[in-house]
Automatic annotation (TrEMBL):
Name this polypeptide is given: N-acetylglucosamine kinase-like BadF-type ATPase
Native organism: Yoonia maricola
GO molecular function, one term: kinase activity
Keyword line: Kinase, Transferase
Organism phylogeny: Bacteria, Pseudomonadati, Pseudomonadota, Alphaproteobacteria, Rhodobacterales
Source taxon at top rank: Bacteria
Residues in ATPase BadF/BadG/BcrA/BcrD type domain copies: 6-264
Keyword Kinase: yes
Length: 309
């Protein structure tokens, strides 16, 4: 019997790798940099670096961005994972993985809002997705989208096109720059998408201080997330009272989560597992371990103890 399995969740901001044994004990956790194949010319080398320390004799399930969405990226990911990890490895789209994790393989809608955004549903008509078209013309409600809106509002207050409510100054204080440094901060960075997505945390902090502009940005983000959730639910054949859950840093913010709950009309189901836990769960099923509801609950508890989300 295999001693352990490995789960990997590679997102735009960070990558989590866990090793889990048959009793759902967490044997190791690795946190490393994110992986976004659309933001670098060296995506193959980045993915190889992430996988370098993954044991090749263990069953591995990976959640990777853009998998089965862009053929060239999918082919590259398949080739690298096969070369480095062999037949024991299985790749899933990262949002499909989040849905699988939240419902432990069951039906429901997963709304993900991290660096990017997408909804993924499993229902009577099969799987469906909505949103997730990337930062150029999609990812509404994501951390990147929130960051872009915050920068736009701040710029309009800085040059006088909009009334100065104090939002621009407060935002710059949160990200520790002067007002006149805003353009340089935004444009002189290696991974602009992840960099700007980082502003979402500052907007959440200002919303907790009742800043009207920050609250307006988060409310509009929630509307966008509701729209993709409803669209995915309908396409999967789920009813208007569909069960939904969530993943990603944006929806870890209570303000955004409450706005989305209000828009959908009922609160979410707490995810049974975080995405990386779902990856380990899938790998455990594939090797034939007895992974029932109790196993899933134990893994969730052990991951929480390791601050893995």
């Amino acid at each position: 019997m295999m001693d352990q399995v490995v789960g990997i969740d590679a997102g735009g901001t960070k990558t989590l790798i866990i090793a889990v044994d048959a009793a759902a004990n967490v044997q190791g956790v690795v946190r490393t940099k994110g992986f976004d194949p659309t933001q670098t010319s060296d995506a193959r080398q980045q993915l190889r670096a992430i996988l370098d320390d993954v044991p090749i004799n263990d069953a591995v399930t990976l959640g990777l961005p853009y998998y089965q969405e862009i053929p060239e990226i999918t082919a590259s990911q398949d080739s690298i994972v096969q070369d480095l990890l062999g037949a024991q490895a299985c790749i899933m789209n990262d949002v499909a993985l989040a849905q699988f994790a939240a419902f432990a393989g069951g039906e429901g809608v997963l709304i993900l809002a991290g660096t990017g955004s997408m909804a993924w549903a499993q229902g009577p008509l099969g799987t469906s997705r909505a949103g997730g078209f990337g930062d150029l013309f999609g990812d509404e409600g994501s951390a990147y989208w929130i960051g872009c809106r915050a920068l736009a509002f701040a710029s309009r207050q800085i040059d006088g096109r909009d009334a100065d409510t104090g939002f621009a100054k407060s935002l710059c204080v949160q990200i520790d720059i002067a007002l006149e440094e805003l353009m340089a901060w935004a444009y002189t960075t290696e991974n602009r998408r992840a960099h700007i997505a980082g502003i979402a945390g500052a907007v959440s902090q200002l919303a907790r201080q009742n800043d009207a502009t920050a609250l307006a940005i988060l409310r509009q983000a929630a509307r966008e997330l509701v729209a993709i959730g409803v669209a995915a639910a309908g396409a999967a054949g789920l009813s208007d009272t569909f069960v939904w859950s969530y993943a990603g840093g944006v929806l870890s913010d209570d303000t955004v989560l409450s706005f989305v709950s209000e828009g959908i009309g009922h609160p979410p189901k707490t995810p049974l597992l975080p995405p990386v836990g779902g990856a380990a769960f899938d790998a455990a099923r594939r090797v034939g371990w007895q992974v029932d509801d109790a196993w899933v609950a134990t893994l969730a508890k052990n991951l929480a103890a390791e601050d893995v989300s």
